[in-house]
Amino acid sequence: MLRTVLTTLAACWLAFGAAAQSLQDVLQDNAAAIAKPSRSTVDAVIADLAASGLPGVPDFLVAWRDKGVWQRDADGLFFYAAASGDDVALRDVDTGDDLGSEPKAGYTEIRPNAGVRRVIGTALVQFLLSDPDTARRRDAVESLARRPEPDQLEPLRASITVESDPALLARKTDLERQLTARFDPDPQARIAAIESLSGNLSVEARAVLNQILSTREAVAREVPADTNLASTLDPGTDISVEDAYQRLVDADLAPTTITRDARDAALVANIDAGRIAGIDVATLDTEEGRAGAYARLAEAGNADPFVPEEDRAAAAEAHTFYVAYDEADAAVTDAARASMREISTRLAFNQFADISLDALSLASIYFLAAIGLAITFGVMGVINMAHGEFIMMGAYTGYVIQQIIPDYTISIIVALPVAFAVTFGAGVALERLVIRWLYHRPLETLLATFGISIALQQLAKNVFGTQARPLTSPGWLDGAWVLNDVVSISYIRIAIFFLALIFLGLILFILRRTRLGLEVRAVTQNPGMAASMGINPDRINMLTFGLGSGIAGIAGVAIGLYAKVTSEMGGDYIVQSFMTVVVGGVGNVWGTLAGASLIGFTQKGIEWFNPSNTLAAQTYMILFVILFIQFRPKGIVALKGRAAGD
Are 389 and 567 in contact (CB under 8 A)? Predict the structure, then answer.
């Protein structure tokens, strides 16, 4: 009956015409059923409310369901009310106007039970599907999606015909296809709906198809003729003989049994004066003898029955173990299987695309973090363990700029050149004060820069504290670019990717089209010959180190937009930066790009096999790099390098 009521309810509610009677009049016509509602009376009340077409009906259903309706004892009128101490605050059910407070003693709270509230809640969804308020319609659709019922299909279809919001219309249409696939009484309509879901990658669509393809396992002498068979199970191959026999026992198709060890233990427990059930223990040295003695115990009721393994296997072979679909119509399940195969294919393709986007994003981050190191390491041969701290300095510079300039868009635009200037200056200072005295002494350089990195971390802790500081992205970078339920990427990562492309082009321009770039390449390939041509290698080393440090500062601003900004953040990228440089090829921009791509895609590929443990993925990544450099020690794109100058 509920389905008829709800269908009538939705159809009537679409009219929204003016009604001659008030909501209070309708309630008084059903006063007894409202005051003491039950599952047997609530349907009739809802039908009358639906037929009234009054706009206040949804509000009353909400209040009725939530125990917010009270009845005045004197005249039986209903009110919206909320108890407050000994009084009750009243509102008119037709207008919603505040009627003041009166003593609670003169009113009775209407308290429907849980079953009635469920019926009211289901009916309320049908009302709200065609509510004039778009937000309430949207909430009703999502509520229906969470708990779909067969009775909701027709009202949903009726609401689609009058839906004016394009996005909500698409959502309703999609949901209607899902409900049709599950609940429509016409098999052909279900098949058509199932086929329409074959291109839908949403979790909801897959859940609908999985529900249609739900199965149960059963056993019988022969599979019943009306069974929608999914597959058969072979004892000894698909299931063990012990499991198969237990299923026979559970289905009352075979007697219970115990294991051979339990049988022998029971024989030992029943030894009495050297005999078991009247049989001399000395004669029980064969399997047949033990089986016969135990059979006597079982016949006497002193032990559970024992069925030998060969008899169990024979019983299992005599029956058919099968998996059957809960859905009776084979054509429906065939269509669902075909749609699931199509979805699985598309899902695999989209998962690959999603992983590729993630890998591309990770590669761009690694490229930004490593390109400065690639320049300094390639030109100067300096192992700068403080490179990660220059990234940290850039991130903190962005944070300070945002404290001065509250507009996040402008602050980020300002922060990029300021971070470059700050870290460029810090890099030049580091090169002039420390590194210039340690050229050609790699071990001392490594130790010195490692100590400086620790000092810079402690300095950051003293200035900014140990808590992570927010580097907030502009509002237009909030959210993500969503292609479907599988493929998405945040706008921040897209921005970092384009920033990496910009820097790739800028660095290539500097190295290939400017005098500084020409001198850097000359010093990189042969510092002695460059010096003889009037180039000052000492000055180039200083500027190159400053350039690499400045780029690290800009990378820090970009990375800080999505990662935590702390004094230790540089340590999260120094290892990846060195791996990127070594794998790509020291001192080569294209090599750094190749190395970042290889490491980014490889790491995401490893994470795909074990997505819950990114630390393990990074560990495997390091092992991969170690193996890689065994076979290609100069990296993917190796320079001829300083060999000519050595």
Answer: no
